[in-house]
Amino acid sequence: MSEPSGDEEETLESGNQSASKLDQEDTYENSDESRELELEAATVSSGQDQLAEKLAAAELAAEKARDDLLRVQAEMQNLRRRTEQDVERAHKYGIEKFSIELLVVADNLERALNSASESKDESAKAILDGVSLTLKSLNDCFAKFSIEVVDPLGEPFDPQLHQAIATQESPDSEPNSVIEVIQKGYTLNGRVIRPAMVMVSKG
User: Which of 145, 161, 182 finishes a domain?
Assistant: First the structure.
């Protein structure tokens, strides 16, 4: 076989150099593409991390808003309940002071009635009838506004309704029972506005 001439060797060497250069360029291009892919992947990963952080922050904010809403709703329910209770108490006991003042009027009418009933004067009879009608009208007014009398003669002593001013021996009465009512008591819608003043039998 004949050896390649000088021109042929140069052509082969030039071809080898070109091929080597092309391989290097391909390697550089592949390397650049790899770096670009890695950069894109890093960017996507960073973007996903940011989205995850934003999502977590949004979930925390939503949970806090939900808790705030539940707390506000509970406070509003409590406020509504307290307001309703205040209105109910105002309706029930708004006339308490006025009622207490009227009790003095009832006491005076009862005293006048007792005094007139003991008199034998005929002229006192007209007064007795007038006082009796006035007292009846007042008692009807009391009943209309849920003002009830506490007249516990013969009943067991109840410290919630009665005020004992003295104790006394009473063989005919049960121990710790009311043997005399000095002054009647009154309640307004079940609340004591004046306890009955009583004498209590000794145990």
Answer: 145
Tokens 């009879």 sit on residue: 125
Is-contact 161 152, C-beta < 8 A?
Answer: yes
- How many angstroms separate the CA atoms of 98 and 107, rounded? 15
Going by C-alpha positions, the residue among 187, 153, 158, 188 that lies closest to residue 170 is 153
Q: What is the pLDDT of residue 27?
A: 57
Q: Are residues 133 and 195 in the same domain?
A: no
- R_g (Cα) of the chain, nearest Å: 52
Position 154, amino acid = G
**Lookup result for tokens 């021109």:** 7
Please tell me the distance from the alpha carbon of residue 193 to that of residue 150, in angstroms, as a whole number.
10
Residues 17 and 82 in one domain: yes
Q: Which residue has the higher pLDDT, 168 or 20?
A: 168
What would you measure as the largest C-alpha separation in the chain, in angstroms?
176
Domain span at 78: 1-93
Q: Are residues 166 and 114 in the same domain?
A: no
pLDDT in tens, 107-153: 999 988 888 777 777 777 778 888 899 999 999 999 999 999 999 99
Per the listing, tokens 């710790």 go with 176
One domain for residues 82 and 4? yes
> pLDDT of 95-106, one tens digit each?
899 999 999 999
Beta carbons within 8 Å of 179's beta carbon, 6+ residues apart: 153, 154, 168, 170, 173, 198, 199, 200, 201
